[in-house]
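Supplementary notes (optional reading)

For those who missed the lab, this is the record we used. Protein: non-specific protein-tyrosine kinase. Length: 829 residues.
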Amino acid sequence: MIPGKENLERSGSTQTEKEGAFALFDFEHFLRRVIKNWYWFVLMAILGYGISWVYSKYYAQRIYASNLSLSISNNTASYFTPNQSINFIWGQNSNQDGIYLKKMLLSRSHNEYLVKQLDLYVNYTTKGLIKQTYLDKYDSPVFLEIDRSHLQQVNYSITLIPKGGDRYEVVLPDEGETTSLYSFATENFSNVSRYSRPANKVIAVNEWYVSPNLKFKLVRNPQPSQIKFDNIIFSLSTVNQTVNSLVSTIGVDFDKEINTIMIISKSGYNLNGTVNFLNTSVDELQKKRLIDRNTVDKNTENYLFDNLAKIRKKLDSSATLLNQMKITEGLYDIKDRDEKSLQRIKDLETKKAVIITKINSLNNIKNTLASQNLDRMISMNAAGIEDGSFNATVSELKALYLKRRELALIYTPNSEPMREINRLINEARGNSTGSLKNYYTSYLNELSKIDHQIAGESADLVTYPEKERRYLDVERGYNMIEATYNSLLTKQNETQIRVATNKSDITVIDNAKNLGQGPIAPDVKKTKYTIIGGLLLLPLLILGLSEALDNRVRNIKELLQATRIPLLGVVGKNTHENNLTVLDQPRSSISEAFRGIRANLRFLHKENDQSKVILVTSSVGGEGKTYVSINIASVLGLSGKKTILLGMDLRKPKIFGDFKIDNKYGISNYLTGEVKMEQIINKTRIADLDVATSGPIPPNPSELLMSQRNVEFIQELKNHYDFIIIDSPPVGLVADSFELMKYADASIYVVRHEYTEKYMLKMITEKYHKHEVQNLGLVYNDYQSQQGYGYGYGYGYGYGYGYFDEDKNYREPTLIRVRNKLRKLFGNT
């Protein structure tokens, strides 16, 4: 049975696959190409590793990060630390104070203070042969101290080269001087007259270096680093540049379980620099928070002191009046008075005095809000209120006032930024005033209720004589003033205690430390894998692209699945000097392959006594059509079958060269009637094999091949030969072969490995399945397996077994040799 034909017979007419449809991508062949080109991947991996190593060592600028954690206590009493109300803020899972602190840490004012305090506008670096490394200020043996009153050039490299002792040479760039210089006092640029490049100069520590664009001195580091540098490079940045770059490197997060714990991080090019900044930043924040807290309490203490002084005068005056009445009227006590009723009146008037005191405190707070001078704000505790929301609003209002002062230096009053900040201020002020109105309403309602109760209790007093009623009124007035005084005195004592015990509500849990943390960026390992992976992907993409664009047939299994045409056999690569492989190398594997094809031919036609006409064609020239024709004719002749080989490719005659026959007369001459049949038939060294060459190239080859004389010529040959092998023209170029197939008992279509284009097989495949071409079989030519010969389907038995002539030159592939050695080593046979 012909290989592949049994599948065709089973599928029959129910086969629904599209004929001639090849896979767009041959993954199996692609994988073999990848393995074959393994050395490119090894080379790319080595190259990628080298590039990543150079990048990591000389070009990757490491970024480090340090962390600091702190706790925010919830017992503060300041508008500027807005978490007075424990119940309101922490009890409701809110973190208003933490958010405020975060904004403060990221605020321009706080970071600008740190920039000026720590001279962060001075950048320290050192440069080796290739790489420039950022330094922490305290890594440098000397500090750069500038004269703030002198104009300075920013973003300008100043190189210090040690000259021994405390002397350094100042080396400036060869160019880059500018007339636009920066003032650190006003934080603005000014233009100066053009000047020449300042000369290099050797200066000592604490000696001023003065030039038109610079004025600075070197200060010895009190704790010098043990690292010795060949050079120190300074450069100045503007305050604004430094603040902006600084804020972008700060991160603030809250603990997921306890939202009063903040985790502050700082990234930078130097680990020590990030550690020093974080610790200093939080230290300054603690101081500022304590000042803010004490500011409110001090304001409250002063407010209470002033009011106590006023109330004291009223209390003294009331006590004097009461004593005078006792003396002049002789009333030390009133007979038959209702003590319980008078006590109730006294208690109600005491409550009234406390409420009036709170209302007065609210009035003070309200007036302070209206004055925009929030630094004079007193505590809401003086009004008997704890409201974290109000405190947060006041804190926000204060921040907005500061922001408006900053914007006023840049924008005009009617500009969009100023209008927006004013809108936010009015909104915040409205929110705070709205909160106060609610407390006013509550206190006034309570005051009205107390007045009503007092009026009810005082109804019985009208029964007393006038003199006694007058005495009771004075006594009640004294009691009320005394209650107000005692209330203020209590608030004053509370405030004084709070001032005495105040401390920052920020507690550092873990300071930032240099623990030898590795860099957080760049991800050197990821970069290395990316570079290596990218370079490994390069040959993979090239191979994949070439595979996708290469449309040649290279897979026998795919060929059979796409065409569903039976395979007669597979022929290996011809290394012989001519096409007479079967005649010259009868023991070769290729000769054995043609014998297999000869055996399979009988399945294409019926077994009978008639002569058989076998046509050999292909898609285009160069696919081995003539080579297959010659060798099939040879194996048939050697088997004792009377065979003739006809060279009917009249456009491109070839056969005569291999058999060394004179092509002066051939089939073209016979078809034109110039010669007789006997004159074009040539004998070969095989007794049963004759050859009729094509002869000279005629002007009308198609007409000759399709002529009635050619049909009669083939019929006449059937009377003399068992097999007639026709070497016909390619069907992809001319239609001659399709006409000749009508007279053939079987047709052989030659497909060449890695040469025939897939699309070329579509036409013959469609004609075969439409039954326009009968008894067709494929021969796969020029195939060479990576593991030696022996694919199957009638194609030899394989190298290495001493069966073929090629075995003496055969060398097993490396993978096969390794496999055989492993089997031998472990005793597997």
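If you only remember one thing from this example: The longest strand covers residues 64-72.
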